[in-house]
Each structure stands twice: as C-alpha cells, then as structure tokens.
Amino acid sequence: MIAPARRAAYEVVRRVFEEDAYADRALASAVAGLDERERALAQFLAYGTVQRARTIDFGIERLGRRPVRKLDPPVRTSLRLGGFQLAFSGEPAHAVVDDAVELVRAARRERAVPFTNAVMRRLAQGFRGLVASLPDGPVKESYPDWIAETWTRDFGADVALALMRAQNEPPPLEVRAAAPVGEPTDVPGAYVVDRVDPARMRPMSRASQLAALVVDSRDGERVLDACAAPGGKTLMLRGEVTAVEVHPGRAAAMAARMPANVRVVTADVRELAESGFDRALVDAPCSGLGVLARRPDLRWRARPLPELQLELLRAAAERVVPGGTIVYSVCTLNADENERVVDASGLDVDPLDADWPRYAHPTRPEFLLTRPDRDRTSGFFVARLRAPKAGV
Asked: Are the C-beta atoms of 331 and 339 separated by less than 8 Å?
C-alpha cells in the first residue's frame, strides 16, 4: 500500500521531468484532497527529488549501471524518488525500496519490477556513502555546471559552494505585514514567521521587499511598474501607479486584487504609449539564480536574459521624466544580468550603499546584492538609476 503523499510526490516528479511542468503547479494538482500533513510530506519528497536530481541520477547510473536517460519514465521516476529518500531522508530503507517497486508495478511495468528492486537495493546499501564521498561541487550539490561556473567566476569558489549549499536548504518563511508579526527583520515591514496567515500577511522575501522600498515612491507621483506580475512589489508602491504586464492572464489576476491607486495595463512596456513618469521599477525577468531554494525545478530550466533586460531597462528610462528615478532589480546572482546590464544602459547611478550598507555589492558598492548564504533571504540585485536630464 503506497501512502497518498508518496503517490502525489511521484506524480509531481514525473510531470516535471517528463512533461516539463512547473513543480509548484504540479504539486497543487497532485495534493488536492490530501490533509495538511500529507501535503507537507508530498512537497518535501517531490521538491527534494527535483532539486537533487543530478546527484540522484549520478547514483542511479553508478550503482544501477544503466544510463538514466534510457530508463522507462515510470522506472526513472520511481528510482529518483526512492534515491532521494535513501540519501536525504531518514526513512527506513526497506519501506523506500518497497514503495519504489510498487510504484513501478502500479504503472503497469511488471517486467521492470526486478530491475527496480535490484537497483533500489544497491542504492540502499551504497548511495548515502557515495554521496558523502563526492568532491564538493555541482554533482554533489546537484546544479548544472554553468551555474556553478557563473558563481565561481563572480564570487570565487568558496562563495559559489556556499551558495549551492544554501539554496539546497528550505528558505526562511518571510512575509510582508502592516502590523508586527513573528520576528522582525532590518527591512521595514518584513518579518520571519512560522506560518502564513493570509488575513494579516503575504509571503514575500525581504530581499524582494527591499527592491520595492528602494523605489521610494511618494503620494502624488506617477510611477511605472514595468514588469509588474505577480504584483507583490506593486502593492508597496505609492502614488499613481501604472502596472504593466505583458501576459493577459497574469494582468487580469493582478487587477482583481490591486488597490485604487494602481491601474493595470496589459502591454509590453517596450510598446507602451505613455511617458512622463516620475519613477519606474523594472523588476525584470531573469535566470532566477537567487530564488532556487524556493523553486526546485528552476535550476534545470533557468537561462540568462541580459538582452531582454537591457531592452526593458531602456524602455522604462525613455518613459521617465528627465532626471527621474529608475530602479532595476532582478532575483538572480549573475553579473551578466546584474551590473553588466546597468553598465550597458549608460544611465547614471544613484548609489545605495549609504542607505543599505549591509547589502552593498561586494565589488560594486553603489549597488545592492543580497545573498542566500550570507543573508538568509533570496538573492537580489538592486540598482537605482537616473534618467538623463533635459539637454544632456
């Protein structure tokens, strides 16, 4: 008898790797009808398996002696889920082996049952030790090589390893609330809590909140939120806010919960027929290398977007009054998408290190950079810039 949580986790892992589904959406569908305890277990197993897939696949190939890519999808998914439990949880090995076999049987792959059983038994005997013996790096920590190489280039080998380890751990539950809740942080309005009460707070990392606070918008000003969905930062902006979102579904979802000072426009900011804004926020699409702990599948689908980011930043700058403020933020840790995009924009920089010295960029202190390993929050890059003054 396979527990409902394990069946749900199996379905999530299968859909992520076989159907390219997003883990959070697949999880929401798979756990419908389960109680809170089962939901939590399903999430732990599914997200952990997706996150540790490279390490698990290494173990399956080394101990199972067969390329993972050649395995039948139900077998591959069962072995991955079982491998995660054996190496990264304290569950009894015999129960994990039995569940993996039963999942293959339930998928009507009876001929693959002996193979699954044999590989799972080898994993039970040697996988944990194999993981412990791996050298520090992207195989042991389960990251694509390019992410490890990017962080090593930008921060050095020690910080790169610390970032990989930090984003394999559950992040703190940070929220934004109007009244004090939980444990306060150094970012006004940001708190760390044990659980979310939707009536009093909304989930949002303090690094993300920091990006919105840097805009420093005021009542009476016209403010452009150039890449607005899902709208957490939009809710923090004051003044007359025009929130631009290119995706119609996300724009509609935003509009349904925005206050009276926010007008949602379904458009690409590069084609927006409006200008004269006092301030703009460009929270641009990015590779997301600062939020990998929250999105377990992102490390396998992430890609840098510097060309798009530069176009969006320039589009916002063209729609701001001369001398107006543009805040550029991205939830990634990659110089190609961070300081190099700002440098390529040619905009003047308004330094931030005096306002937020704790989060000053290590080599470019005029910018802010939060790090999951050091700050226990999402990794964000934030720059405050100025549009050219008239005649300049």
From this structure: no
Residue 372 inside a domain? The answer is: yes
- Closest by alpha carbon to 319, among 265, 373, 364, 365? 265
15-28 pLDDT, tens digit per residue, is 999 999 999 999 99
Does residue 238 lie within any of the structural domains? yes
pLDDT 10s digits, 128-148:
999 999 999 999 999 999 999
Domain count of the chain? Answer: 2
| Assigned token pair, 279 | 């301030």
φ and ψ of 295, to 5 deg: -130, 90
Q: With H, G, I as helix, E, B as strand and everything else as coil, classify residue 337.
A: coil
Clarify whether 331 is annotated catalytic: yes
**What span, in angstroms and rounded, lies between the C-alpha atoms of 321 and 262?**
19
**Residue-wise pLDDT tens digits, 316-341:** 999 999 999 999 999 999 999 999 99
Kindly name the residue from 16, 331, 341, 360 that is annotated as catalytic.
331
* Domain limit, last residue, from 134, 159, 177: 134
Are residues 253 and 350 located together in one domain of the fold? yes
Q: Which domain holds residue 23?
A: 4-134
Question: Are 356 and 347 spatial neighbours (Cβ–Cβ below 8 Å)?
Answer: no
Among residues 286, 285, 289, which one has the least CA distance to residue 373?
289
**Taking the CB of residue 102, how many other CB atoms lie within 10 A of it?**
17
